Amino acid sequence: MDFFISTFIKIFFIMTPFFVLSVFITITNEATLNEKRKLAVKVTLSVVVISLVLLFFGQHIFKVFGITLDAFKIGAGALLFLTAVGLIYGNKDGQKPTDKNLSDLAVVPLALPITIGPGTIGVLLLMGAEFNSFSKLFLGSLALLCAIFFIGMMLYLSSLIEKFIGKDGLLIISKITGLFLAALSAQIIFDGIKSFFNL
User: Fold this and answer.
1) Where do the structural domains in the chain lie, given as residue ranges?
2) For residues 65 and 32, what is the distance between their CA atoms, to the nearest angstrom?
3) pLDDT per position as a tens digit, 141-174
4) Which residue, 13, 20, 21, 17, is CA-closest to 165?
5) pTM of the entire structure?
6) How far apart are CA 66 and CA 88, in angstroms?
7) Distance from C-alpha of 185 to C-alpha of 109, rounded to nearest angstrom
8) In Å, how far are 98, 118, 132, 151 from 77, measured between CA atoms?
9) How far apart are CA 16 and CA 68, in angstroms?
10) What is the distance between the alpha carbons of residues 124 and 135, in angstroms, rounded to a whole number?
11) How far apart are CA 39 and CA 27, in angstroms?
């Protein structure tokens, strides 16, 4: 039980749930309640699939394609930076996002790299190598699924949280989130370059 709880807490906070929630609220501020809930479900399912694949097959996939974690950091950081720019400057055409446009955001950037960033990927790859018994693998996988479920529920109930924040608060969160995302993307890219060149 201690192993399950410690693994759950570790995964839950590494996925930065409150940061993910703020990005989700910002991106879906013009969406309907139904669209938000659909997106929350899609993001949760995407995170489950990506996380389990990384846990069980991550090391093999990276080896087969010759991808290093450093290269992934640089690529993920670049994608994250584009998202940050969009949040800071807003939707220039002023159009309300459609259900199709929101669906496109489920995997990139909401699931990857915002929820499952390079840090989470590194932890999942490491856990996959460390779970050397069936009991550890079972409990670790269960802890992972529980952590993702809790984050998914936070996203699903984001409208309730949004009501307390208000439009002005949402606008402020949007700009601040964009700035933090830009800084985070830069840090991810710098870390990737630094590790790549052994600096």
Assistant:
1) 2-194
2) 40
3) 999 999 999 999 999 999 998 888 776 776 677 7
4) 21
5) 0.76
6) 35
7) 12
8) 26, 9, 32, 22
9) 23
10) 17
11) 11
